[in-house]
Amino acid sequence: MSNPFITRTGLVALLLWLTAVAAWAQNITITGRVLNTAGQSQPGVTVLEQGTTNGTSTDGEGRFSLSNVPGTATLVFSAVGSVTQQVPLNGRTTLEIRLADNQTELNEVVVTGSRATEGRSNILTTSPVDVISAREIRAFAQTDVTQILTYIAPSFQSTRQTVTDGTDFVDPATLRGLGPDQVLVLVNGKRRHTSALVNINGTPGRGSVGTDMNVIPPAAIKRIEVLREGAAAQYGSDAIAGVINIQLKDDTTGVNVSSTAGQTTKSDGQLFQADANAGFGLGHRGFVNVSGQFSNRSFVDRSGLDTAPLIYLGTSGGAYPAGLSSQQKLDLKARDNALVTQNGFNRRDIRVGSADTRTYGSYVNAAYTLAPSIGLEAYFSGGLTRRTGRSGALYRLPTAVTQSDPAVYPNGFLPFINSTVNDGSAIVGLRGQVFGFQADLSNTYGRNALRYDISNTINASLPQGTSPTAFYAGELAFQQNTTNLGFTRKFTDVGLLPTVNVAFGGEFRVDNFQINPGESGSYILGSRQVNGAPAAAGSQGFAGYRPSDALNQSRTNVAGYVDLESDVTDKLLVDVAGRAERYSDFGSNVSGKVAARYSILDALALRGAISNGFRAPSLQQRFFTNSSTQFTSGELREVLTTNNNDPITRAFGIGPLKQEKSTNYSLGLTARVGRAFTLTADAYQIDIRDRIVLSSQFSRGNAAVAAILTANPRPGQNPVQGVQFFANAVNTRTRGVDIVANERLTLGADSRLTLTAAANFNETQVRSFNSSTFIDNNASLQNTLFDRAQRARLENGQPRSKINLSADYGYKIFGLNLRTVRFGEVQTKDADPNRSFIDQTFAAKWVTDLTLSAQIIKQVGLSVGVNNLFNVYPDRLYLDPNNNEQSLNYSTLDATNRGRFVYGSNQFGMNGAFYFARLNVTL
Q1: Domain closes at, from 99, 128, 143
Q2: CB within 8 A of 335, min separation 6: which ones?
C-alpha cells in the first residue's frame, strides 16, 4: 500500500520541477550589473546571449537589461581588457558579474591587415592598425567621417576646401602624407568605390581621385580600422599608403537616436544633425541594423568683409592696404556700398569660406543564417546618400568686362556652384564552410555621381542683356562592380610549423566613368565681343561640360591572391602575401609582401614588413577633359585639361598613363608596461616610381605652347590661356614614424581615465622627374611640367607632423573628453619664381576640443562642448595685389600688411570655435 505522504511529496516535487522547467523554457528578462575585480562598475561591457545576436551593453553604472532570453540560455560578457566570461542562467533573472583583467587583451581585436580566422589584438599584429570605436566617433562634434579621422588618427589628414569647384564638396583625404588615391577604403572588408570627382584645382591631392567617406552616416559605424602599411599585395591597387576599413554596426540592442546642434562664435557655420540607429534580431538566426542621418550645415564666411571693400574679395580680403589716401579709401567704400545697395547683395551672400551642405543618408547591415549545420549565412549591406551644396566662386568685378555683362550685373557678381552628390552602394554575399574552409562569395556595387548647377552667373558671350543667370553644367559619374570569392582555413601541425593560416581567392571588377554634358548655354561661345575680342564663353564660375567632353569609358580587372600566416614559434609570427592583377586597359602587375613580428620579451616585440605595390591610373585620370576658369599666378585664366589620348597631350611628348609602382619598408616595436600601458612606434619608407600628377599649366604666352594650341583649336570656345594634363611625371620618397601610447587608469570607485598620446612625423621629397623629349628640348618648358607650386603642394601641402593628446575621464554617470591636436606647418609657393615674395609658411597650431557629458537616466544622455576651445585660426593667406584687374598697385608686402588677407587651403580649416549640444536617447 502506498504511503500518502510520499505520494503527496512526489507530486509536489514533480509539480515544482515542471514549474521550473516551464519557467526555464519561456523567455524572460535578465537584469544585472557588471563590476571589475576591484568592485567598480564596468560601462560598455557587451552582454550577448550565446549563439545568437540578441545582446546589449552596460550603462555608465555597469547595469544592463536583456529581454527575450530563454531561462536555459548562457550569457557571454566581454570587454576590452577583460577576460570573457560565460554565465549559464539556470533560471535566474538577476546577475552580478565580476570580470577579471586580461593582460593580453587590452587592445582592440582587428580584422584588417590579416586574413587569419582568429582576430588579433592590434599590438599583436605584424603591421600597425589604429582602431577608432563608435564611442570615440561620437565623443566630439566632428560629424563627417573625414573630420572625425583627422582629429583622432595622426597619420590621416583632411581639410574642408574653399573656392575649389567640386572639391568644395568632396574633401581630399590622405594617409601618411601621400595622395587621396593612394589609400584604399573598405566597408565590411569589401572594396569601396571612389568618387566621380577628379581634383584639378590648387588643393592638397591635386590631380587625384579619392573616396568620399562622408557619404557614410557615422551612426552606422561600429568601428574604423586604419591599417598604416602598404597592402597592395593583400587588397589590390590603391593600397600604397594603407587601408581604411569601416566596419558597420551589427548589434540588435534596440533604437538609439541623437541630435546635435551648434554654431561658431561668429554666428555662422550652423549645424543641425539628427542620427538614428536601430538593431533587430531575426529569430536568433540573424540581425538587421538600420541607420539614418540628416545633416544641415550652413556656410562659414571668413572673407573679412566687415573691414574690407568688396573689390578685394577673393584676393586680399582684409583691411585697406597701407598707403592709400583718404580719398582712395572713400572711393572704395562708395563702391562697396554700391555693390550692397544697388545690386541687392547681402554681405553674407558674397563670401569666402566653406560651403552650405545638406545631407540625407541611410545604411542597412544585415545577416541571416540559412543552414546552421554548415554555418551558411547570407549577408547584405547597402546605403543611399544625397548631399546638396552651395559654394561661391571668385567674384567677377564690373571692370572684368570680358567676364561680365553690365546690362545684367552692373556692379559685378559672385557666381555660385550648386552641387548634388548621389551615392549608392550594395554588398550581397554568402559565407560558410566548404571542405573545411571558410568560404566567402560576394558582389559589391557602388555608384557616385556629382551634378553641377551654376546660379547667379551669366554666359558673357551671349548678346548683351540676354544671358540666363542659371545653368545646368553637367554631371560626372563613376560606378564599380566587384565580385569576390575567398577561402580561409587554419591548419595545425603542418610539418615543422605549429599553425598555418591559408587564404586565397580571386576578384573580378568592372569600372565605368561617365561625363554627361551640360545645357548648351553653359558652354557655348556666343557672338558678343568686347573691344574687338570674344567675351568669355560658358557659365562664369564653372563652365559646363561640352559634348566633346562627354564620354562613357569602362575597363575590367581580374586578380588572384594568396596569403599565408604562421606562428612559426611562440615568439615569431610571419605573414607572406602575393597578388597578381590584369587590367584590360594597361596590362598586368604582380606584388608581394613579407611581414613578421618577433617577441623579444612577453611585453616587448619587434615588427616589420617589406612589400611592393602599385596603383593603376583611375579612369578619371585617363579620360577626364574640360575647360575651367582658374586663379593662377595672380590672374584668372581659362585652362584646358586634356586627357592622354588628346593630340595636344601627345604633342608635348606625353604617352599613355601607366601604373604607379611602390616599394614599402617598415620597422617598429610594440610594448606593454604594467597592466594597461601600451606603446607602438613604427618607422616607414615609401618609394613611389612614375607617380601620376596633374601637370602645371603650360601658358599660351610661351611660343612653343602657343604653336601646339593653335594647331589644335577647340571649335566653339574661347582660345585657352593654359593647358594641363596627367602624366607619370615624378618619383618620390616618403619617410616617417608613427607613435601611439595608451594608458588606462582606475582612480577610485566608479572612476576611470584613459590617456592617449599619438603622433605622426613624415616627409615627402621629389627625388627625380620623368619628362619628355619635346619638353627637355625646349628650355623654356623644362620647369613647367611640375613647377615649384606643384612641388611645394606635394612636399609641404600637408602637415609634416601631427600630435594628438587626449584624455577620457568617467565618474559614474558623468564623462569628460579633452583633446588637443597640433597640426604642423605647411607651405605654399607660387609657380613663378619671380613671384617668390608671396611664398608663405603657415605656422603650426594647437586645436583643442572639450566635451562634458552626463547619462541623465539610462535612456537619455546629454553632451555639451566646444570644438576649437581657444578659437585658434590658421595664418591668413596673403596674395599679390597686382591681380584680378585691380586698379591699386603696390609691389611689396611688409609685416604690417601680412595677416590681413583671406584664409586659403590650410591645415585645419577656418571656422574658429564651435559650440554644440547633443542629446542621445536609447529606446
Answers
A1: 99
A2: 309, 310, 311, 411
